[in-house]
Amino acid sequence: MALVTIPVESLLEKRRPRSDTQAREWCAQLEAGEILFFPRTPIEFAVGDLEFLLGQQQTDSSLHKNIAYKPGQDALSGVDTKSAEAAAVMRLQLIMRWYSAAVEGFLSGFLTPYARRWKLDYASFRPQEEEGRDLALRKRNDLLHTDAFPTRPTHGARILRFFNNIHPTRTRDWVVGDPFATVVKEFAPEQIRPAPDNALSRAAKGLGRAVGLGAAIPSIKRSPYDDFMMRFHNFLKENARFQAECAKYPWQFPAGSSWMVYTDTVPHAVLAGQYALEQTLLVEPEALVAPETSPLKVLEGIAGRALV
Ligand SMILES: [Fe+2]
Predict the structure, then answer these.
(1) 143: CA distance to ligand 1 center in Å?
(2) What is the 3-state secondary structure (H, E, C) of the chain?
(3) Could you tell me the distance, in angstroms and rounded to a whole number, from the CA of residue 266 to the centre of ligand 1?
(4) How far is the CA of 233 from the centre of ligand 1 (A)?
């Protein structure tokens, strides 16, 4: 597992435009399960906005945990609007709207081979201390896992996440594992792998979609690929042997840094840290520069059939 360090100074050199070769290499490194690390974030925050975010405390009576911003709807969720002041909620929404656009703008010029062939998914603000959080097992962040979203199947699109550690002094402490292709072959048992094609279940799902049950029953909206990725997420968190025996690589991301990684490929856990921002993009399978390394193609190779 490698960390590819990119000095922000090299990104700001406008006189020497980066070559397509370099941009393709960054995409290929990400797709292969490496982390691109920016010791100094390329996202330029206004000082007042940072101070506002760092002023949000973890209490039940104000802006609180797992605050998500949905760019498509320009809406915040996870904010306790009953007790938080309306002006603070409004300011947080403005900051998240700006952050979401700033990250997408940066990535548009940085990962040029993708040519914006992605869906801008949620952004999040994580003001809570990660160490010692009391969460249900499947929601725990400190257990190694690959990402899958229970209510937002991707149908093969890749989950690319861009992070900012905005804490003024502390590192954000991660552990990552070997990429998907290695882990799935080493740890996924037969019973959780994609089931053989079944004409009856396909017909039932097709009928369900036709009568509009997809919104009510999330599993119907999921492809066999999404079903597997969700099972795999749960399996990894619940599997003591995997948690104990898998390869582990610790990384500490300093205050003021950024990093990005395909979190559907790279098992990851966050052990400690407070105050982070994150933006998720769902990259279309057709945009990938090395699709053969994607979880979808790896799984289809194992299953011997198409999974979306
Ligand atoms: Fe995750």
Answers:
(1) 9
(2) CCEEECCHHHHHCCCCCCCHHHHHHHHHHHHCCCEEEECCCCCCCCHHHHHHHHCCCCCCCCCCCCEEEECCCCEEECCCCCCCCHHHHHHHHHHHHHHHHHHHHHHHHHCHHHCCCEEEEEEEEECCCCCCCCCCHHHCCCCCECCCCCCCCCCCCEEEEEEEECCCCCCEEEEECCCHHHHHHHHCCHHHCCCCCCHHHHHHHHHHHHCCCCCCCHHHHCCHHHHHHHHHHHHHHHCHHHHHHCCCEEEEECCCCEEEEECCCCCEEEEECCCEEEEEEEECHHHCCCHHHCHHHHHHHHHCCCCC
(3) 9
(4) 9
Closest Cα to residue 8, out of 243, 203, 256? 256
Q: Taking the CA atoms of the chain, what radius of gyration do you get in angstroms? A: 20
> How many angstroms separate the CA atoms of 227 and 116, rounded?
26
Query: What's the gap in Å between 277 CA and the centre of ligand 1?
Result: 13
Give the pTM. 0.89
Check residue 199 and give its pLDDT. Answer: 53
Could you tell me the distance, in angstroms and rounded to a whole number, from the CA of residue 197 to the centre of ligand 1?
Answer: 29
Q: How far is the CA of 148 from the centre of ligand 1 (A)?
A: 8
Give the least confident one: 79-88, 108-117, 147-156, 234-243: 79-88
Using one digit for the tens of pLDDT, what is the confidence trace for 250-282? Answer: 999 999 999 999 999 999 999 999 999 999 999
Q: How far is the CA of 39 from the centre of ligand 1 (A)?
A: 21
